[in-house]
Amino acid sequence: MKCSNHKFLNGKTVATFAATLALSAALGLSFAPMSSAQNRQVQPQTNRGQQPAAPANRRTQQPAEYQASDLDREIQLPNVPSYTGKQKYVSGLIYPNAKQGPGYYMIYNTEHTESQVKEWWQNALSMDPWKVNFTDATTVKARAKDGSTCNIVVMGVQGVNKDTAKGMRGSYSLFCHIVQK
Predict the structure, then answer these.
(1) How far does CA 38 lie from the centroid of its chain?
(2) How far is Cα 101 from Cα 21, in angstroms, rounded to an integer?
(3) How far is CA 46 from CA 43, 51, 53, 123, in A?
(4) CB-facing half-sphere around the CA of 40: CA atoms within 13 A
(5) pLDDT tens-digit map of 56-83
């Protein structure tokens, strides 16, 4: 996913969008486009002396478990291996109120290629307490014995900041949900 060339997207916008998708996938949520009937606003009927009913498609505040805050720096996560290659933190989010424990989403640029980064993470998440339960060309998903999850997605260099992209050949996003008992 290379969005860094689009002037209307910045690293945080991309990170927020990607984090929302990753969290939604991790929680088993899916998005479907609204039909034109769902999109239409229906004028409420009012009865004399009564308040009008709220529109059926009224937006409400997102539940606290899905609300994210920006991470201005990387965080070392408990029981999650630290990538040993040269890397630069690009951006991140924290979901402090996620069910069962916080969720973290971080993006790094690396000096290694996408395939090298994926191989490293696949090997690292094959060690105790982790067990890899899914891989494909760009993704490694693993679950720890305590129920924590870690999803790695490799991609091309991310971000519009030249300092985080200089000399880098690949990138990865890390989404971890750390279960707290």
Answers:
(1) 28
(2) 18
(3) 9, 7, 8, 63
(4) 6
(5) 666 678 888 888 999 999 999 999 999 9
